[in-house]
Amino acid sequence: MNIWSLAWAWIRFRPLGASLNVALLALGTATIALLMMASQQFEQRLSADADAVDMVVGAKGSPMQLVLSTVFHVDAPVGNVPAKEARFLEEHAMIEEVIPMALGDGFRGYRIVGTDTSYLDLYGAEVAEGRLWDEPLEAVFGAVAAAQTGLGLGDRFVGEHGLGGAGGPTHDEFPYDVVGLLAPTGSVVDRLVFTSVATVQIVHEMDPDHDHDEDHADHADDEDHADHADDEDHADLRPPEVTAFLVDFSTPMAAVALPREINQSTVMQAARPAYEIRRLFRLVGYGADIVRAFAVILVIGAVLGLFTALFQALEERRADLAVMRVLGATQLRLFWQIVAESLILTVAGTVLGLVLAHGVAWGASLWLWEHNQILVSFAWADGEVVLVLAVLGLGILAALPSAVRAARIDIPRVLSGG
Amino acid sequence: MTDDSQAPHQPETAPLPGEVPAIELVATTVGYGGPPVLEALDWRVERGEHWLVIGPSGSGKSTLLHLLAGFLTPAKGTARVLGTELATLAPPARDRFRGGSMAIVFQRQHLVQALNVTQNLGLARRLAGLDPGPEVIRATLRRLGVDAFARTRPAALSVGEAQRVALARALVVEPKILLADEPTASLDDRNADTVAELLTQEAERLGSTLVMTTHDARVRERFARRLVLGERGRS
Asked: What is the pLDDT confidence band of residue A168, given thresholds at 50, 70 and 90?
């Protein structure tokens, strides 16, 4: 009958109260752990998408919107820029690679991206079936887009203005052929439909119904757009306008010098995804902080419950503790006896909470993959070790008043019934 | 007043010359901060002797046991148990000394309710610094006639059964000194007689020194040596 087995016996002696203590601790721990995992997943996914691109260059406007629309594909494009500007970027000594992007249409909620195949290299995407796009009006689907739309190799579809899926106008004259399906990457690529920049140009320049959808609301009035028909560069095969360029630096120095140069000396703006995403985290971080604060309050409430339970149990066990002193237990032994009981409850609550959190995360990841083909990891969040240590520390703290009281018990008074 | 007339239960061997006595109080005064409960008490108990401590309520019978157990320290004089002056020991050492050399039986059984009978005895052995000794535990329960309750929780025992288990818990550590504070006060005649008999028999079997306080006239004849406490514990 050592310190742990006695603590366990005392816990088993009041199963309902102990279960409640454990459940409350588990609930608080699980909530915080889930928040940590979700937050880390969110940040990792956004960071992975953002880190693949050193810089985005597009029409002047909101840099956040430029990044959200061209890197994460969750916002409307800012506008278009002259394709001839690619030459300035391609010839710049600090730039390794320039990838054009032409946006504007979608299919059942999935954005059609006109780009070249080097875009896929940014995210390590590989063809699962078929091949990459080559000719105009050939399309390749990301894994989620393919699964959700149900399209496969050889199928045909027509693009819709904007993101599509809302019953808006369609480009019926220009059906796409599905020539390839990509393997899942866990990145933004999974939710996109790819074609060439030239295809986007063909669809928008030749479609008699095309009246510049909302995504292009700005560029109709853009003076560069008005001018581009007369531009000598229009004579080459390069489409006259694109939505943005994704830029890969050749030197780290470019991160400092290049955005300023582009913003000051061209009609375009440069935005750094890594910077903008940090700004986004700061903005959404306030909401997460509020939820996290509620979870912390939940844990503190559970710890207070544990404190109350231990204190009440101590009053019921004063005779037991006094007898233990009679039998030879030191004050320190009684102190640790109470702490041990609290630790068992806290460890049980923490472990149960973590199992609960990871179980929910695992279930959610299965569900997301099953229904949306979205890859979500339920791996440990970085802060979970700190969470475990913090909850254990609080558990010990909750036991201290009872432990001190147990150690200072007045043996003669208790045993004489006082 | 002490009375050491011949009685049924006496140690078979007389203490060896020069052997340290089990208990030695010299002009011992002890109290709880107010007027002394025991004042200038001299008392010597040899090893293996059985003593009955009697006196009216408030005469200091329980205080004397608390002093011997090391819960209290004398305000004046000295109190030695097995040659050790408990007041000179640091509290943890005093606790270990108590656990390793003596056991106490109370009027109330004070069994740990969360543990079954065997576990209660196991806890006592553990706190006394002994090995778990399952065989010793089984044998002790058998001798006291409570082996049928080995897996029973204290709440399911009658008062008499619980007191025999409490006695088993005291004996299972094979104490050199066995203190009993009114152990029969809450028992009916049959149980009181059984517990008193077991107490004296087992103490004799183990060679333990037995000091028992009581108001109970039913058990007095079992003890030859008596310490009678009067006002402020004067004997």
From this structure: low
* Partner residue facing B91 (CB), from A12, A331, A415: A331
Report the distance separating Cα B214 and Cα B231, nearest Å: 16
Instruction: Tell me which chain B residues have a C-beta less than 8 angstroms from the C-beta of A328.
Output: 95-96, 98-100, 127-129
CB pair distance less than 8 Å for B96 and A330: yes
SS (H, E, C) chain A: CCHHHHHHHHHHHCHHHHHHHHHHHHHHHHHHHHHHHHHHHHHHHHHHHHHCCCEEEEECCCHHHHHHHHHHCCCCCCCCEECCHHHHHHCCCCEEEEEEEECCEEECCEEEEEECCHHHHHCCCCEEEECCCCCCCEEEECHHHHHHHCCCCCCEEEEEECCCCCCCCEEEEEEEEEEEEECCCCCHHHHEEEECHHHHHHHHHHCCCCCCCHHHCCCCCCHHHHHHHHCHHHHCCCCCEECEEEEEECCCCHHHHHHHHHHHHCCEEEECHHHHHHHHHHHHHHHHHHHHHHHHHHHHHHHHHHHHHHHHHHHHCHHHHHHHHHCCCCHHHHHHHHHHHHHHHHHHHHHHHHHHHHHHHHHHHHHHHHHHCCCCCCCCCCCHHHHHHHHHHHHHHHHHHHHHHHHCCCHHHHHCCC
Any idea where the domains of chain A sit in the sequence? 3-46+285-415, 50-279
Q: What is the pLDDT of residues A246-266, one digit of tens each?
A: 988 888 888 888 888 888 888
**Nearest residue, CB atoms, A2 vs list B72, B95, B126:** B126
Burial class (CB in 10 A: 0-12, 13-18, 19+), B69: buried
Q: How confident is the model at residue A123 (pLDDT cuts 50, 70, 90)?
A: confident
* Element spanning B41, H or E: strand B38-45
Cβ–Cβ below 8 Å for B127 and A320: no
Average pLDDT value over all residues in chain A: 82
Instruction: Report pLDDT digits (tens) over A314-355.
Output: 888 888 899 899 899 999 999 999 999 999 999 999 999 999
- Nearest-by-CA chain A residue for B96: A328
Is residue A209's pLDDT more than 90? Answer: no
Judge: B66–A412 Cβ closer than 8 Å, yes or no.
yes
- List the domains of chain B with CATH numbers: 2-10+18-233 (3.40.50.300)
Instruction: Compute the distance between CA of residue A5 and CA of residue A22 in angstroms, rounded to an integer.
Output: 18
pLDDT, tens digit, 9 for 90 and up, residues A154-167: 999 988 887 666 66
Over residues B117-149, the pLDDT tens digits come to 999 999 999 999 888 889 999 999 999 889 999
**Count of other CB atoms within 10 angstroms of residue B188:** 12
| Contact (CB<8Å) B71/A2 | no
> For residue range B13-71, what is the model confidence (pLDDT) as tens digits?
445 555 789 999 999 998 887 888 888 889 999 999 999 998 888 888 888 998 999 88
And the tokens for A120?
């896929």
B122 has a chain A CB within 8 A of its CB = yes
SS3 state of residue B101: helix
Identify all chain B residues contacting A10, using CB atoms and an 8 Å cutoff: 114
CB contact under 8 A, B129 and A328: yes
Dihedrals φ, ψ of A207, to 5°?
Answer: -75, 120
Q: B110–A320: do the CB atoms touch at under 8 Å?
A: yes
